[in-house]
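User: I'm curious whether this sequence folds into something compact or stays loose and floppy. Could you predict its structure so I can see for myself?
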Amino acid sequence: MAKLYISEFISGPDKAMPPQEPCVTDQTPVVIGAGSLQSAAFNSKTNLVRIHTDAICSIAFGEDPTATADSKRMAAGQTEYFTVGGGQKVAVIENT
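Assistant: Here's the prediction. I'll summarize afterward.
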């Protein structure tokens, strides 16, 4: 079962530095499937997320996001960091 892993961080003043551990929270992974599924809302203090996928997928961010095949594509095994706002979510859907 393919999953999207989400770690929430509070980034420091120097955005060039890696985020400081420990993270705010590691969310329960979101299952990647044929329909768009959302994460839990990010903590109000979160402004940076680490996203890791173990399958090809597309993601979208927002307060009530819906991911489509045309959204940001991630390769299997890819890890990326994104600046976000507290209360937002990430949605994910499988892709090829």
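Summary: The mean pLDDT is 94. The longest strand covers residues 3-9.
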